[in-house]
Amino acid sequence: MGNGEPGSVLLGANDRALAVAAIKAMLRIERDDEDGLIGQLADTALGLAEQFLGQVLIARQVHVVLPAQPGWQRLAAAPVQAISLVEGIAADGAAVTLPMTGYAIDIDARSDGWVRIIDASAAVQVRVTSTAGQAVDWATLPAPVRQGVVLLASYLFSDRDTTRPPPAAITALWRPFRGLMLAPAVHA
Question: Would you give the distance in Å from CA 88 to the centre of its chain?
């Protein structure tokens, strides 16, 4: 997954420290010998939240490879804050510089990112680099999303050997933030 899309989360040092502190508070753990594991569980829980919600939660750079075909193509990671680079990829895998007139970009009112290839030159694919994310850091995530991540990571820590499912309260906290699309997105 290392392209930055929803689910591929590695918290930065400050965000990890805040997440670990919140999870340890939930678990009533005061010692530090489990911090590495708790940090990994925080990454996992946040990644699962992103997959459930269908969006990047903490802003990061995302790289998406799309076919070099005409027409608008929606970027999978949202909400998009900026599209910073569109480059072509030739059949041999080499990067090809696309002229500014060779593509168009747009971010719509829903914060979906769009790319339209006008002239791909020798490219068979395009690599789009964007910045996507709902919040700038752990502290600015919506409280219910953050609480659901803490609950899930706490469950993963304390119930490692169980076969019972995670508490339903987790998805209940996340559901209001879930973006559902009933029909394929079309750029207007």
Answer: 23
